């Protein structure tokens, strides 16, 4: 027994010794590995610092910050979202404010054990191909990711396999790979490292939030100005399985992401557009009820938080603008799909710059605007988060619009300061419009064309339809058509039938793609011929082809709507001094209102002009029997020219020669203070602008092209009719040998000069911008940040090879006709008129001979 015990004891000691030797060798091996690679021992690293756990553990050691990246997340796709958190006054004045995004990119982290590095690559994930197709090898090689950053591996956590890297350089301004705020905001330059730093890092289960203060300086011919911008960088883990995309039908207006598809069976690459939308799905237990048509609460509703900086009296109106969309989402089968909440005050982790939260951010700024951009997963179009930026001074635009457009019919809209309830309803409208953008909806500039102009004067109709257009995504504004005697009360844009239809098309959930395709095709086909569901794309303001889709117009007849609008503008001018009266105050508010009225008159002029040479652009598909291009009726175009003759080419003296000018000129704010515009100079420049737009090459070429398709059943308006009508009006008194007034001489000079300028441009490379007056005098438009993004990609070339285009002959021929007329009439009229004729003869003669 003793012998057996001794054998056991000797074996035990031997085993312990072997294990000890093995453990010592392992420690020496680990030590040797650390010394060889220069890595810090993980336990030593965390012992000297603090650890915050999350998607990446964050280790902070004195001034150094480290990411601990789990091996399971190497190769996974993340989205970097960079936002502005703080700006100094100089950038605030330039329109850069808290909450604005300036750079997003998809990245992946990969480990290189050989070089002891973690590489960060970025790619544009817009290409797809089947995994087992041969072409996929080529896709990978021809659309590869680019390395934007490399980190030395600092340590390895072997217990929970992960890699540690030091990340200071990409957040403290040393490198621009993760955020390049100065170049992406147009400032240029680099951060000053001694004046830039990381202020905070937080990690959460699916994202990381890093805050930095980055400083630079700019100099524009004077002393350098220091600028420090607060930055919030979010690193968000994207879903392993992207949301099932929904492909655009161009008969609706959604923001999109392009996607290219390759496969072995193709003859050519397939390009599609994915609409941007939230991932709204029924809960698993509600799928059966949902498919039966019952309303269900979505698995994850869309929640907006109200910035705590928002003045308390406006919060309920902003929230209501969000809740108003609930009815639209009910068309898609969801109840309580969109919610607005106050930001939590007792949650230390809540941060309005954190992409886990969609926030309506309130910006203290002189800028008058609002906008609603979204953060989108580019792989699928899924909206991850949205931020509405609400500038404090947006109320100045609302007040100006309501006073000018509805003051004559609504007493509440006449004062210098509106009652809170009245302003609140306007805020509700803007809130709904901007929230609509965060759902993926683009502007629908053609929606307002669905309403008959005279219907907008009907109290019954406007109450029933609930607004000025079938879509709140139009720039329909307020009801300037209704007259005081009409008694119309529903004058504010509302969410309409198009909006509900678009939400249903974008958000109704389907169990499979085949069911989805069949339903959505049938839905569009059902409404394709109903003008209430028409979608009109945003167009270039300087080259509007389809007059149905214009900004800030109302109704289906621009001439009639503008005539009603002018009647109301006359009422505003008659009451401007009274409405803006403040005892002892300057006439600043009067001058601003005066300029606003002139801007509204100019707006009506542009609406009318765009009918001349206008073409209705329809998004057609095989089998719908629609024409892709339809010329505006000749009778409509003739009415438009008559309107211009009566209201523009005959300068309206009620607008430019009135009692207001005895107290103030029209005023427009500038960085140097209010700028005063002489009424005569302003009238001359705006009339010139109208002539220039009317006789633009593209417009005249569209008129010429229309005659190519002339048929007996349809009259086409011609260039000859256009010039004859305008010439006979502008030179009416010349033809009758009468003397001309100052404004009549002005109109003739403008008419002739526009033709001369175009002739002189024939062989010159002259920027069109140098020949145009500033186009918009009214207050800023809402969400004008997305004008470029929103403009239709459907551009039609009407101006190539100008030297041999028809319009050159037309304009030269018109100058020859005018020269003959003026030579015959040069000795008629008073001295000013005769001097005027000699001047025009000299100008035309020089232009033709040159």
Describe this structure as you would to a colleague.
- This protein is α+β, with helices and mostly antiparallel strands.
- Among the domains are: 1-37; 50-237, no CATH class.
- Helix content is 37%, strand content 18%.
- It is built from 26 helices and 24 strands.
- The chain has an eleven-stranded antiparallel beta sheet.
- The chain is globular.
- One of its GO terms (molecular function) is metallopeptidase activity.
- Residues 416-736 form the EcxA zinc-binding domain.
- This is Metalloprotease.
- Pfam families: DUF4953, DUF5117, DUF5118.
Evaluate the radius of gyration. 33 Å
Q: First CA to last CA: what distance?
A: 129 Å
- General form: globular
Strand content: 15-25%
- Helicity range of the residues? 25-40%
Q: Enumerate the spans where pLDDT stays under 50 for 5 or more consecutive residues.
A: 1-10, 12-16, 28-36, 765-775
Strand order of the largest sheet: 1-2-3-9-8-6-5-4-12-11-10
Averaged pLDDT: 90
Number of helices: 26
Question: Tell me about the biggest sheet?
Answer: 11 strands, antiparallel
Protein name: Metalloprotease
InterPro entries: DUF5117, DUF5118, EcxA_zinc-bd, MetalloPept_cat_dom_sf, Zn_MMP-like_bac
Pfam families: DUF4953, DUF5117, DUF5118
Domain EcxA zinc-binding: 416-736
């Amino acid at each position: 027994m003793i012998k057996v015990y001794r054998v056991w004891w000797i074996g035990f000691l031997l085993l312990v010794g072997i294990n000890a030797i093995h453990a010592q060798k392992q420690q020496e091996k680990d030590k040797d590995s650390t010394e060889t690679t220069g890595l810090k021992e993980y336990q030593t690293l965390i012992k000297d610092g603090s650890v915050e756990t999350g998607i990446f553990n964050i280790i902070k050691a004195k001034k150094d910050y480290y990411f601990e990246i789990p091996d399971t997340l190497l190769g996974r796709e993340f989205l970097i979202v960079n936002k502005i958190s703080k700006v100094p006054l100089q950038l605030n004045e330039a329109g850069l404010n808290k909450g604005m995004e300036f750079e997003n990119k998809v990245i992946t982290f990969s480990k290189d054990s050989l070089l002891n590095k973690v590489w960060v690559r970025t790619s544009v994930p817009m290409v797809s191909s089947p995994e087992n197709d041969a072409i996929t090898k080529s896709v990978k090689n021809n659309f590869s990711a680019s390395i934007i950053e490399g980190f030395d591996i600092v340590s390895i956590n072997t217990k929970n396999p992960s890699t540690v890297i030091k990340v200071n350089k990409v957040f403290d301004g040393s490198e621009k790979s993760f955020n390049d705020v100065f170049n992406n905001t147009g400032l240029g330059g680099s951060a000053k490292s001694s004046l830039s730093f990381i202020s905070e890092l937080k990690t959460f289960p699916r994202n990381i939030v890093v805050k930095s203060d980055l400083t630079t300086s700019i100099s524009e011919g004077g002393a350098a100005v220091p600028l420090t911008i607060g930055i919030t960088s979010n690193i968000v883990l994207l879903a392993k399985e992207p949301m099932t995309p929904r492909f655009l039908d161009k008969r609706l207006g959604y923001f999109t992401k392009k996607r290219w598809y390759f496969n072995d069976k193709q003859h050519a690459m397939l390009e599609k557009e994915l609409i941007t939308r939230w991932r709204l799905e029924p809960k698993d237990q509600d799928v059966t009820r949902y498919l039966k048509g019952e309303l269900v609460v979505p698995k994850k509703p869309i929640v907006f938080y109200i910035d705590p900086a928002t003045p308390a009296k406006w919060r309920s109106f902003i929230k209501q603008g969000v809740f108003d969309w609930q009815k639209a989402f009910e068309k898609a089968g969801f109840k309580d799909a969109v919610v607005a909440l106050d930001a939590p005050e007792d949650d230390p982790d809540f941060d309005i710059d954190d992409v886990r939260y969609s926030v309506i951010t309130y910006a203290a700024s002189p800028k008058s605007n609002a906008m609603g951009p979204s953060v989108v997963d580019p792989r699928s179009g899924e909206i991850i988060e949205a931020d509405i930026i609400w500038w404090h001074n947006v109320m100045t635009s609302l007040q100006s619009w309501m006073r000018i457009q509805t003051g004559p019919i609504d007493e509440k809209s006449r004062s210098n300061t509106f009652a809170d309830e009245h302003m609140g309803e306007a805020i509700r409208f803007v809130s709904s419009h901007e929230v609509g953008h965060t759902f993926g909806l683009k502007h629908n500039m053609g929606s307002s064309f669905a309403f008959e102009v005279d219907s907008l004067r009907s109290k019954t109709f406007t109450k029933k339809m609930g607004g000025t257009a079938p879509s709140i995504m139009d720039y329909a504004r307020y009801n300037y058509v209704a007259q005081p005697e009409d008694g119309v009360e529903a004058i504010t844009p509302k969410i309409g039938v198009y909006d509900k239809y678009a939400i249903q098309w974008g958000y109704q959930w389907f169990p499979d793609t085949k069911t989805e395709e069949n339903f959505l095709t049938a839905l569009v086909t059902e409404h394709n011929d109903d003008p209430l569901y028409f979608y009109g794309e945003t167009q270039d303001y300087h080259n509007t082809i389809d007059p149905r889709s214009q900004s800030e117009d109302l109704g289906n007849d621009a001439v009639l709507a503008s005539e009603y609008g002018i009647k109301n503008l006359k009422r505003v001018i008659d009451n401007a001094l009274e409405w803006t009266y403040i005892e002892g105050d300057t006439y600043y508010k009067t001058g601003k209102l005066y300029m606003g009225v002139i801007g509204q008159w100019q707006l009506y002029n542009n609406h009318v002009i765009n009918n001349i040479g206008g073409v209705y652009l329809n998004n057609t598909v095989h089998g719908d029997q629609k024409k892709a291009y339809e010329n505006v009726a000749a009778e409509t175009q003739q009415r438009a020219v008559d309107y211009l003759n009566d209201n523009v080419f005959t300068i309206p003296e009620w607008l430019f020669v009135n009692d207001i000018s005895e107290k103030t000129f029209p005023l427009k704010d500038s960085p140097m203070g209010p700028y005063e515009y002489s009424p005569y100079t302003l009238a001359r420049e705006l009339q010139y602008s109208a002539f220039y737009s009317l006789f633009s090459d593209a417009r005249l070429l569209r008129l010429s092209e229309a005659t190519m398709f002339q048929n007996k059943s349809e009259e086409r308006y011609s260039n000859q009719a256009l010039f004859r009508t305008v010439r006979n009006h502008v030179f009416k008194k010349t033809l009758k040998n009468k003397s001309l007034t100052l404004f009549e001489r002005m109109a003739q000079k403008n008419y002739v000069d526009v033709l001369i300028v175009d002739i002189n441009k024939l062989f010159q490379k002259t920027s069109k911008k140098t020949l145009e007056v500033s186009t918009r005098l009214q207050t800023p438009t809402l969400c004008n940040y997305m004008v470029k993004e929103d403009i239709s990609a459907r551009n039609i070339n009407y101006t190539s090879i100008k030297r041999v285009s028809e319009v050159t002959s037309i304009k030269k021929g018109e100058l020859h006709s005018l020269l003959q007329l003026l030579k015959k009439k040069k000795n008629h009229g008073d001295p000013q008129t005769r001097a005027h004729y000699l001047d025009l003869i000299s100008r035309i003669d020089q232009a033709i001979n040159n």
